[in-house]
Amino acid sequence: MSEIDEGLLANEQMVLRSNKHWFAPAADSKWAILMLLGVVVLAWIEPNQVSDGFLSFIWRIVDLIQLGLFLGAIGWIVYNVIAWRTAEYGVTTMRVRGHEGLLRKRSTDTLLTSVTDVEQKVSAIGRALGFGNLRIMTASGRAGDDNFTTMKGVDAFKKAILEQKQGASAPPPSAAPAQPAPAPAAAAAGPTPDPMTQINELSKLRDAGAISDAEFDAKKAELLSRI
Questions:
Q1: Shortest CA distance to 81 belongs to which of 2, 151, 24?
Q2: Which of 2, 30, 72, 149 has the most beta carbons within 10 angstroms of its beta carbon?
Q3: pLDDT in tens, 72-85
Q4: What pLDDT sits at residue 22?
Q5: 26 CB neighbour count, 10 Å cutoff
Q6: pLDDT at 194
Q7: How far apart are CA 220 and CA 195, in angstroms?
Q8: How far is CA 188 from CA 96, 191, 197, 226, in A?
Q9: pTM above 0.70?
Q10: Average pLDDT along the chain
Q11: CB neighbourhood size of 195 (10 A)
Q12: Measured CA angle at 122 (ends 120, 126), to 5 deg
């Protein structure tokens, strides 16, 4: 079981996983690479033969600086490679989870309900190779923001966060839907036609054969009774 799978809550499910791109160690080791270049430059300018005296003392210090830069750069690169190999990111139905590091672990959990925005940054190299940086902003301000750098599938990861956040913010299915407001009472019916007018209309229907004489007489008697 991976680190981000541990500690999942009841009914919490993993929706999407991702990790760092293979370019991550190189991107995170730019200063270490510069340190190695500094070692090369110092080795190149150091004279082959140094006479005893003050200059000899200076070059010994330079040698120690070279050794420190070299060891520091190598250690930095090794750490970045470990961070790349162990980094995991995931979106669950409740949280955004992240884990990096081996000896010095860094684990983050952000509730979807506290996420206010997701900022995506993709450089030209990132577009070509398929990686980017993601910044998850929360209601607690910059102190609660989280950054996932040089991550694969950054577009799909951002989409999953927003989709799950929308689902987490929606009311539960069991909640009764709000009842619509009652429709206003129907407008009062128009004025009743005059009985004599109705009798004339019924006479036309009788002459046209639409109703019988008996039906005409019964309806006529009913209308006359209203007068």
A1: 24
A2: 149
A3: 999 999 988 988 88
A4: 92
A5: 16
A6: 73
A7: 9
A8: 59, 9, 22, 21
A9: no
A10: 81
A11: 15
A12: 145
